[in-house]
Amino acid sequence: MKNIPSVDLADFISGDPVRKQKFVEEIGRAYEEIGFVSLKNHFLNDNLVDELYKEVKAFFALPVETKKKYEIEGLGGQRGYVSFGKEHAKGKKEGDLKEFWHFGQEPEEDANLIDEYPDNVQVEELPDFNKTGMEAYRMLEKTGIYVLRALALYIGLDEHYFDHWASNGNSILRPIHYPPIVEEPKGAVRAGAHGDINLITLLMGASTGGLQVLRKDGVWMDAIPEEDELVINVGDMLERHTNNKLRSTIHRVVNPPKEEWSKPRYSIPFFMHPRSDMPLNCLPECIDDEHPKAYEDITAGEFLYERLVDIGLIKK
Ligand SMILES: O=C(O)CCC(=O)C(=O)O
Ligand SMILES: [Fe+2]
Q1: ipTM of the complex
Q2: Can you give the residue ranges of every domain in the chain?
Q3: Does domain 6-310 correspond to CATH entry 2.40.30.100?
Q4: How close is the Cα of 9 to the center of ligand 2, in Å?
Q5: Is the pTM of this model over 0.90?
Q6: Which atom of ligand 1 lies at the shortest distance from residue 190's CA?
Q7: Residue in 68, 56, 90 with CA at minimum distance from that of residue 178
Q8: 170 in ligand 1 pocket by Cβ < 6 Å?
């Protein structure tokens, strides 16, 4: 992609220590500067992406009453359907112009997390919806684990430091539908400016443009990946854990010009979360005289709860 540094996961897994180190430096530097990269040679193949978009479009095309059957009270929107306008960016009162679905973790039995994670919601009308969603979930999770290994090395931790926390983690795959805009949005946008909550976000190409990233100098830049790339950015949990070394960059999805209001937009981010008991305490490797500890100690579960309240998914 033009505006955002491009990295190649094949370098990291090549077995060649020089290429591996090159990947570590490239992604680490990009995350210190802009917080976003585009990544080639990930594990999500094009056919699976096409299948997933087909299922996702079919789901959002169902009648609203059918979709609302899958909007479950009491889960803070963490599984199933979340209806139009419900979520808003932190600190903003207008709801985003979107509806979405959440697929969550189906942990391995020996992880002892079965009781902690709510079950995924099964869509009866579409026999392949859940299977396709979870296949994509696994491929994105696998890609994310490699990215976190590279970041662990960059920070000076053991390569496998994140493996335990991120495997069987509380990650979410979120297909989003931004419907055609039918009336003057009055301050509402498709997605208000925000930083992501989680460790890292992996985003496959959207059906159309609109995603913008806020550069350090205050300029908004379009972020549109090439066909075969994933956009991967740092979220607030990783920014906090690395004491602001790696940057969770503010981004948004703008409304199209009026001539294009009739076009819907679809996109499918994967929010990689750790297990809820992971301490996000600032890492000693990231604290020194110039960078004193910037945040209180907190676990991932506590941090997530606070943020779900901030964005309107949990009502206190
Ligand atoms: O729709 C997109 O392209 C990105 C959405 C996003 O930033 C988010 O849901 O956190
Ligand atoms: Fe985001």
Answers
A1: 0.98
A2: 6-310
A3: no
A4: 22
A5: yes
A6: 1
A7: 56
A8: no
